[in-house]
Amino acid sequence: MVINRSREEWKTYGNVFDKFTEANLRKLSSQGYFEELESSLALGKEANVFIARTKDDDLIAVKIYRLENCNFNKMLSYIIQDPRYLSLKGQRRKIIFAWTQREYRNLLKSRELVRVPTPIVCKDNIVLMELIDDGDKVSQKLKDVKLENAQKTFDDVIDGVKKLFKGGLVHGDLSEYNILIQQGKVVFIDLSQMTPTDSSNAPELLKRDVNIICSFFNRRGLDLDSKTVYNSVVGK
């Protein structure tokens, strides 16, 4: 397993392999969730994502939130809006665990509404989930895809935003960086910041999501008015 390799070998992957995380990876591996980590998939501000191989020779994604050097203030700004987590204020590690658990729970909720990676298990600062691929390669982010029909892709994205909103959820950090295109279809990822529509900051987050998506597609040749799109999402 990769967790038996030297830490020096993995420092280029953001130094997420502290002793606590290594112990959790060993536990998840011993429970049969995966055999070994194959490679690094994505390096983010709060977490790194790796590809792991299971005993059945399938590939899954392993997302590890850093216990150090993460954007803790961003996590707190979202969690502080949720009354379930008020008691965690000032408890850095517990907030990171809650943030990780939020992603797992949001994946479970969202998969009934839109296409997201299927969650497998959550353990403290680690989430195991389906690897989104196109058979022989990992699916690309929207920002990297050459769009043959920008209007259709935009419609698909906004249709997903509407389905989430109708289901009581706002992505909260939507952009071309956390949408994958799998065989032409939209897949939403990075759901730890997803917020219920009855949260006080939900309208602001939804407006920001819509503005960012409209800006991206306007740069791809469309002529979109973000206010009109926002009103269509909320049913005005």
Topology:
Layout: H1 7-10, H2 19-30, E1 36-43, E2 47-53, E3 59-65, H3 72-79, H4 92-110, E4 119-123, E5 126-130, E6 140-141, H5 150-166, E7 169-170, E8 179-182, E9 185-188, E10 195-196, H6 202-218, H7 226-234
Antiparallel strand pairs: 1-2, 2-3, 3-5, 4-5, 6-8, 7-10, 8-9
Notes on the protein architecture:
The chain is α+β, with helices and mostly antiparallel strands and 236 residues long. The protein has two domains: 15-70 and 96-130, Phosphorylase Kinase, domain 1 (2-Layer Sandwich); 140-234, Orthogonal Bundle (Transferase(Phosphotransferase), domain 1), CATH 1.10.510. The chain has seven helices and ten strands. It has helices at residues 7-10, 19-30, 72-79, 92-110, 150-166, 202-218, 226-234, and strands spanning 36-43, 47-53, 59-65, 119-123, 126-130, 140-141, 169-170, 179-182, 185-188, 195-196. A five-stranded antiparallel sheet has the order 1-2-3-5-4, sandwiched between helices. Strands 6-8-9 form a three-stranded antiparallel sheet, with helices on one face. A two-stranded antiparallel ribbon has the order 7-10. Strand 4 (119-123) and strand 5 form a beta hairpin. Helix 5 packs antiparallel against helix 6 and helix 5 packs across helix 7 (226-234). The N and C termini lie far apart (53 Å). 33% of the residues are buried.
Q: What keywords describe this structure?
A:
10 strands; disordered N terminus; five-stranded antiparallel sheet; Transferase(Phosphotransferase), domain 1; globular; alpha+beta; 36% helix; 236 residues
